[in-house]
Design a protein that fits this description.
Shape: globular
Structural class: alpha/beta
Number of strands: 5
Strand order of the largest sheet: 2-1-3-5-4
Distance between the termini: 42 Å
């Protein structure tokens, strides 16, 4: 299998485990930072498809090609700039690339696999104040990774299986793992918005803004909430003005919104 990683914490720890401790030498480890291995992957692809040498979507094409032969996993959902999107399925703390949508698992099997993966995790209650490493930067990043994983799984369950009740449990679990994760509150807000629970959605968007006032996605979702859920045109227009003033941008251009 191939494992593609980026970001310091997962990258450096996996380097140590893979190269230092010799764990899972059968896995082809691809780093987006030290990218010699990535170049090898794309070079192998270009031997078969030389016409794609200047294609900006070369990496996405190479990954899709190899996924038809061996499993491909990544902590980054790489997408081509045009054409058909790649299908990335949550798989523990990473995603699995599925090149054949006919192989998408039914909900029960998907949940069984996630349960098996998470049963092997240690320190899932890492926020416990009795844990001596609670204030460690590395440990805090791990809780954020756990939280984001719950968000991704909740999104997937909601969008793929339309299981609202279970998706809600995952979004709440994401906040339990890290109540300072702005993206967890935004995911819950979008879920509530889809159920026309406009006020709760607004409250969670505000929580996300309190945590990270410069999270531009929060302004986008607040705009959507006011315009389409509350149906308050004035407030939605005010969000646009605030966004443009704060970010010195063009809201409708940045988000292709209307």
């Amino acid at each position: 299998s191939f494992l593609l990683l980026t970001a310091d914490t997962p990258l450096f720890n996996t380097w140590y485990i893979h190269y230092g401790l010799k764990v899972r030498p059968d896995v082809n480890f691809i780093s987006m930072v030290a990218n010699n291995s990535l170049h090898k992957l794309t070079d192998d692809y270009l031997k078969k498809f030389p016409k794609d040498s200047k294609d900006p979507d070369l990496v996405a094409k190479a990954l899709l090609n190899i996924s038809g032969k061996v499993p491909v996993f990544s902590n980054l959902k790489i997408q081509p700039s045009k054409g058909k999107k790649l299908v990335w399925i949550p798989y523990g703390l990473v995603y699995k690339l599925e090149n054949d949508t006919k192989k998408i698992l039914p909900e029960s099997e998907f949940l069984k696999i996630q349960s098996e993966i998470w049963s092997k995790f240690k320190n899932k209650n890492i926020n416990n104040i009795d844990n001596p490493s609670v204030n460690s930067l590395t440990i805090s990043e791990i809780t954020l990774a756990y939280s984001n994983s719950m968000v991704d799984q909740g999104d997937y369950i909601f969008n793929q299986y339309h299981d609202s009740n279970l998706a809600l449990k995952y979004f709440n679990k994401a906040i339990d793992f890290d109540n300072n994760n702005a993206n967890a509150y935004l995911a819950l807000a979008v879920f509530q918005m889809s159920n026309l629970n406009c006020q709760k959605s607004q409250d969670n968007i505000f929580k996300a803004m309190d945590i990270n006032p410069l999270n531009n996605k929060a302004y986008y979702f607040l705009y959507i909430n006011y315009k389409f859920c509350f149906k308050d045109i004035k407030k939605s227009a005010d969000v646009v003005k605030n966004y443009n003033n704060i970010f010195r941008g063009d809201f409708f251009k940045d988000f292709k919104a209307n």
